[in-house]
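WARN retry 2 of 3 for item q-0093 after timeout on previous attempt; input resubmitted unchanged.
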Amino acid sequence: MGLITNKKQSKQAGFSLLELLVALAVFVIVVVTATNTFTLVAASHRKISSQQEVIENGRFLLESIAKEIRFSQIYNDDGAALILSTKNQDGDDVTFTFDNGSKSLTKTAPGGTVTLNNDNVNILGQFYVSRVSAESGEVPHPLVTIMLKIDDKRSGQAFDSSVSLQTSISPRSAY
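OK item q-0093 returned
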């Protein structure tokens, strides 16, 4: 009887081929699911990061231009333009230029010309100056509307990280 008992114990000591295949299949399913989840989370993080950079750059541009316009005299005629010419509170001529060819925004002041946008974004835009109100005729302060389209220019992006922004600013004092 001892011999029969040993045979039964040796048969129960290992896994059958079917059990190994089922365990391997379950393991593969868990690993593939975890890998796909990690890939989706990483792609979402890259997209959100790209969108955040585009929005932050746009807000910075609008705020810096708006601050300059609030304390400046506007020289542009009514209508749309890629160039906005101003004279700031110090009496310096300051020009903002949308270069839609190189997709950038520059500021030219007595200190030189500076590109305002980040190297990772493209900028398209224009200025619109309005000095006349339909209701009352002359507007005491010209109204400058800035329209921007900003997108991420880093290559290999499989998503659209672009934003369109618009704001209107009027100088604080009449010149």
